[in-house]
Design goal:
heterodimer; A: 146 residues; alpha+beta; B: 433 residues; alpha/beta; 9-stranded mixed β-sheet; 4-stranded mixed β-sheet; 11 helices
């Protein structure tokens, strides 16, 4: 019920993002979602890709620091209040969100959200109990073009 | 031509000085042999007996002492006197958290204080002057060294210690300091504060300053003299030998006069350890011929300088050393604190990171700022900013604890710092000293 996210340490230097994404492009890695946490000196690039393990190897070979992080993916109604009700479930269970980012899917009426929490198991349980649909890695890519 | 604190020594004939040094060296080697097991072993190994030392010229037969010997015998192993004769301990920062501990008998303190009194007098201080000591007081020798030197002179000491710059400015204005003693960088900080407070330094009773404990350039001297409207004098020293006042500038400012009646200088080639002739740059080595508690033999200071025995235009005959122009090791002096890159490396390794780092030293608003650039490694990487900030904080805290100095930490990408096949160049010093 979890999704593997690539987390990459990126120094704040012009061209770094272009360099890193071009490594992935060369090997036909498909990026479906991304977010960047930025600070003054560095950023953390977070990517959801089709082949996370292979992509991590590629990036490590280039000398970058990369980790695979288990994150939650949920599918919510693409309407006002959709995201809020999912967050409410987590909040009521006392589960804090470290970060989250959303992306629109080609599937009509649905939005996907990636959520990072400290305790994945607890979050999976309360979300499932509340009837919120959790995504698998394949779900994110199987909607491609459909 | 300035005044002397002790004309009999400061303007003595070279013959007299040599006779004095010879007598003191003979006595010192005897004491080391009898009271310091470390030196007895060293001399035995070299096949030298105290009886082989007949004059100061025989000093070249003696073995060298290095900072590591002090660490190996931490804290009191090299002391030559019993505890009841000791009256003071000082310490300076050392590698991997261990300090270099030094001790003094009353006679040692008297000689040290006299060195500072000579320095103050050479800078024009008199019994009627207020001497404002803005060096840190404590284990560091700066504060107490100048303090007792000023008392020895009979001047009026203002023991302000360092920090609280607004109060320093108030003291300068209200107490009427005539002479100020601090690190050159702190002098500039005080100067800035005066300027921002709208105080014209030319209107203050301040005439001169004695600055040391860190390397400084002639450009910095000009800047200090301008911002504080004073004449700026250099003072040299290291705690292993005594503290500030081992050597000092006179009004000629053409080198620093060494108190060679207590601390005998040599210049040697740092690679071969062969003595070098006067006027040739090499590593400065001191033998504490007049010291009771910690009589170090041929202690390698690692400072690169040259000496001259030509009589100075000020009238002093004491040997002069030029401003040190570098180090024969990789030690940095940052805000008066001794920093070895190996200490930084030790901290990085202790946190499970790879020892790929670079130390950058800059001057920001006249203060030394140290930044440690470390490559990110898998062991400490996190997908959360909080996790990485936590690593930075831990590094900062560990550096502060080990070095006694705050440092900025900058995490960089792996493989982004230069790699070295030979000797690694870990330090980028942008201070132009």
């Amino acid at each position: 019920m979890l999704i593997k996210q690539l987390s990459i340490f990126v120094e704040n230097k012009a061209g770094r993002l272009a360099d890193i994404t071009s490594i992935l492009a060369r090997k036909n890695v498909d990026i479906r979602a991304l977010s960047i946490a930025d600070t003054t000196d560095y950023g953390i690039l977070r990517l959801i890709v089709n082949e996370p393990e292979e992509a991590a190897v590629l990036i490590r070979e280039e000398g970058l620091t990369v980790s695979l992080t288990d994150v939650l993916g949920i599918s919510i109604p693409d309407e006002p209040g959709g995201f809020s009700s999912a967050l409410r479930v987590l909040a009521d269970a006392g589960i804090g969100v470290e970060y989250a980012y959303a992306f629109i899917t080609p599937k009509k009426g649905k939005a996907f959200v990636i959520i990072r929490v400290a305790d994945n198991d607890a979050a999976v349980k309360v979300l499932t109990d509340s009837g919120i649909q959790l995504l698998e890695q394949e779900d994110i890519f199987s909607y491609n073009g459909s | 031509m300035g005044e002397y604190f002790n004309k009999g020594i400061e303007a003595a004939s070279r013959d007299y000085l040599k006779a004095l040094q010879s007598a003191k060296l003979i006595k010192m080697v005897q004491s080391c042999y009898e009271n310091v097991p470390f030196y007895k072993r060293l001399l035995d190994e070299k096949g030298i007996e105290p009886g082989d030392i007949h004059s100061i010229d025989d000093i070249v037969k003696l073995p060298f002492t290095v900072k590591q010997d002090l660490r190996d015998n931490y804290p009191y192993g090299l002391f030559a006197v019993p505890k009841e004769k000791l009256v003071r301990i000082h310490a300076s920062s050392g590698t991997t958290g261990k300090q270099t501990v030094v001790g003094y008998t009353q006679a040692d303190l008297d000689h040290w204080s006299e060195g500072c009194a000579r320095a103050l007098t050479a800078a024009g201080a008199t019994k009627s002057d207020f001497v404002h000591v803005a060096y840190g007081y404590g284990l560091f020798t700066g504060g107490l060294g100048l303090h007792y030197g000023a008392e020895k002179l009979g001047a009026i000491v203002i023991p302000a210690s360092s920090g609280n710059t607004a109060r320093q400015v108030q003291i300068l204005e209200d107490f009427g300091s005539n002479i100020i003693c601090c690190t050159p960088s702190y002098a500039l900080v005080i100067g800035e504060k005066l300027k921002s407070a709208g105080i014209d330094p030319a209107g203050l009773p301040l005439r001169a300053g004695i600055f040391g404990a860190e390397p400084w350039s002639d450009n910095m001297r000009l800047e200090i003299e301008k911002t504080l409207a004073i004449k700026a004098y250099d003072i040299y020293g290291l705690s292993e030998i005594a503290g500030p006042g081992v050597a000092y500038e006179c009004s000629e400012q053409n080198g620093l006069h060494i108190c060679e009646d207590h601390y005998y200088p040599e210049i040697v080639d740092p690679d071969t350890l062969e003595p070098l002739p006067d006027g040739t740059f090499g590593e400065l080595v001191f033998t504490c011929i007049g010291k009771e508690a910690l009589p170090l033999i041929r202690y390698r200071t690692r400072d690169i300088t040259a000496i001259t025995r030509e009589k100075c235009a000020c009238g002093r005959t004491l040997v002069r050393m030029s401003k040190p122009k570098g180090r024969s090791d990789d030690m940095l002096i940052i805000r008066g604190v001794n920093v070895f890159p190996s200490q930084v490396e030790h901290v990085i390794l202790s946190l499970g990171m790879e020892p790929n780092y670079q130390i950058v030293v800059d001057k920001e608003k006249n203060l030394d700022v140290m930044t440690v650039r470390v490559e990110m490694s898998d062991a400490v990487f996190s997908d959360e900013v909080r996790g990485i900030e936590d690593t930075q904080r831990k590094l900062c805290a560990a550096l502060q604890e080990t070095l006694g100095l705050s440092a900025k930490v900058h995490l960089v990408e792996p493989r982004s710092l230069p790699r070295f096949e030979g000797k690694a160049v870990r330090v980028i010093d942008n201070r132009n000293i």
